[in-house]
Amino acid sequence: MILDPLIRRNIDPSNEGVRVTTTARRLIATMEQWAIQHESDHFFIAPVTYEKPDHFRQSLVNQLSRPEGPNHFRSPDARADSLLVKRSMFQDEREVRILCVGTGQLHEGDKIRAMPILPNHLFTEVRFDPRLTAFERREREETLRKLGYEGTFVDDGSYVPVLTLVPLPNGWPSPE
After folding, report:
1. In whole angstroms, what is the distance from residue 36 CA to residue 56 CA?
2. Distance from C-alpha of 57 to C-alpha of 39, rounded to nearest angstrom
3. What pLDDT score does 137 carry?
4. CB 51, CB 32: distance < 8 Å
5. In principle, which of 36, 37, 101, 110 could form an S-S bond with 106, CB 3.0–4.6 Å?
6. Domain layout of the chain by residue ranges
7. What is the pLDDT of residues 92-137, one digit of tens each?
8. How far apart are CA 21 and CA 93, in angstroms?
9. Following DSSP, what letter does each residue of 97-160 receive, concatenated?
10. pTM beyond 0.85, yes or no
């Protein structure tokens, strides 16, 4: 986020964080729908593994140094495993991913395959970036409601400013 110093609003909405909550049952149901539509692809659902930065880089080197080298990534399982690792600084996210590993190539210019979701069936709640002001958060909620989302919004109070008043009595001795 980038706060405008004058109006104190975020001027970079594309980099706001959004956290969604769901259940394993809802994730599996969504993945099963995709599998019906894309029978030749391989689908995976798994938690992300968080590794320390040094180990994160070394893990990739180790995979490429195997006798099969880059061919290791030809198997759908190995491709999925490579997409389930993040640096440990993000471990508070406790992320679970649904992956689709296709058998062919995407159209030129496509980097990822967009899969349709039904937010009301997939998400149990949505939390917007806690750094947003209350007004901005209400704007985001209103936008999602207009798009048809009927679920719960949760206010994340982790960035609420706290003012601590500590009364100090008169007559304290001077520091030495």
Report:
1. 34
2. 34
3. 92
4. no
5. 110
6. 1-21+123-176, 23-117
7. 888 999 999 887 766 666 667 788 899 999 999 999 998 888 889 9
8. 11
9. EEEEE-SSPPPTT--S------HHHH-SEEEE-TTS-HHHHHHHHHHHHHTT--SEE---GGG-
10. no
